[in-house]
Amino acid sequence: MEKEIKEDSPNKSKIDTSEDTYLNLKDKNINSDTVNINEEENRNNIQKNTKGFLNQKTSYYLYAKLGNTYAFFGDKYGSPLIVLGPHWYMYLGCCSVINILFMLFFKKFWIYMNIFFKFLGIVTFLVFIISYSYTSLVNPGIPKFDENAILGKPRENYRFCRMCGIWTNLEENTCHCFDCNICYEGYDHHCPWTGKCIAKKNTFSFYTFLVSVLCSFCYFVTALTHAQHNIFLINKKNKSF
User: Are residues 127 and 32 in the same domain?
Assistant: First the structure.
């Protein structure tokens, strides 16, 4: 039996479907009929086993749930305009707290600040809210419908995601997030403070948001010092009379 196994082993195909990188059609030992059968079986397995619908051609929807995310306003390729992550409540909570802090600060110290600090405060607040909201609401990079990739056609630069049931492009650095339970192009990391992942389309806004957090802290310190100084001068002037 051992001899027979050794004799048969050189004639076996070099294809290993368990690996992420799929077929290599340049292998001369592969029979074309076998390849067609494997492709057909692979397509059927993908359609049966997939949990999401990234492998389905969907267009123009108002709302859909992709993995653990909530997608709104899909375009003609099925790519959503707005995506709320599984930790959307973190975004709403943080956004509410920051708005309240800014409003209370402005309400208490607005009259004691000069025009420069008033203008700087408005700009800081707007940059913070816009960058934070954009990062938390925009589509981070959910892959668009690609028929060649979805159907599992042999390509060396594609990798199969067993969770989504789709083929993802390695050149786009597509990776699966287990918190969102969906693939993203240009995946960076999952950020619970924004409610979802940081990927291709919201990386710049995310770093803008981080810079705005630092600027907001510096603004609160300097503006508070300036306001307290003006309050001290006003009180001193009133006591002199």
Answer: no
